[in-house]
Design a protein that fits this description.
Blueprint lengths: L1 E6 L4 H13 L3 E4 L11 H14 L4 E7 L3 H7 L7 E3 L3 H11 L3 E5 L5 H13 L6 H16 L1
Parallel strand pairs: 1-2, 1-3, 3-5, 4-5
Length: 150
Amino acid sequence: MVIYLGADHRGFKLKEALKYYLKEQGYEVADLGNTVYDKEDDFPDFAAKVAKEVSLAPEQARGILICGSGTGMAIVANKFKNVRAALALSPDQAHAGRHDDDVNVLSLAADFTSEDEAKNIVRVFLATPFGNEERYRRRIEKISQIENEI
């Protein structure tokens, strides 16, 4: 599984720490930027790159997006078909998103999440399988129907 990373200037430092952490854990990591700190960059650019890659292989890829609030990144990522992005501020929230909603893109809030908290959230996000119960599959299918109607 490839983990795609993206962050703007507010999430850059945390992205770099998570990139190192993920590689230490044996994950294949693709850093889609920003690859340098640039206080003038814009989060939609990086969110779109990550979401595009995940949308092409939603079962084989995961994305992790980081900006100041985490909200903007999730908004952009959810514009892409087959992407289910969610902001998580705790490991429990990451678990619920993966288990119940098969979230494949995690959004983190660099302004509100320490490096240690982020590592724990990411660990849970990547380790939690989709619950695959009928009610969860039914709800995801409804999301797919909405995507196809738009």
